[in-house]
Amino acid sequence: QVQLVESGGGLVQAGGSLRLSCAASGSIFGINAMGWYRQPPGKQRELVAAITRGGSTNYGDSVKGRFTISRDNAKTTVYLQMNSLKPEDTADYYCTALDGPQMHWGQGTQVTVSS
Predict the structure, then answer these.
(1) Cα gap 27→84, rounded to integer Å
(2) I want to staple 69 with a disulfide (CB 3.0 to 4.6 A). Which of 49, 56, 64, 104 is the partner?
């Protein structure tokens, strides 16, 4: 079983930055990719960013050029650097890990961007 724990959320003014972290533990050997989804209030859940075991990345259209996903050397911790934050980025952010056909989800961390 894979366990995911997010941290780094909080309140920030528009134009500011935050860095989210996601630590994976447990049976992590089969993880093929990790990433971030978010769900703004009253809206659908959407992909933010993802990174594969080989290092390939992809981003949601709304965050391209502003957010960057990265990982540590052990590939067990994933980060989301969020720059030039906008009020529209306000959401619950969830870390994910793909283990074979199974996707695991963290508990989420809240990001609020004020005007």
Answers:
(1) 35
(2) 49
The answer to whether 22 touches 6, Cβ cutoff 8 Å, is yes
Give tens-digit pLDDT for 64-99: 999 999 999 887 899 999 999 999 999 999 999 999
50: left (phi over 0), alpha (psi -120 to 50) or beta: beta
Q: What is the dihedral of CA 5, 92, 80, 63, to 10 degrees?
A: 160
Segment 31-54, tens digit of pLDDT: 999 999 999 999 999 999 999 999
CA dist 109 and 65 (Å) reads 22
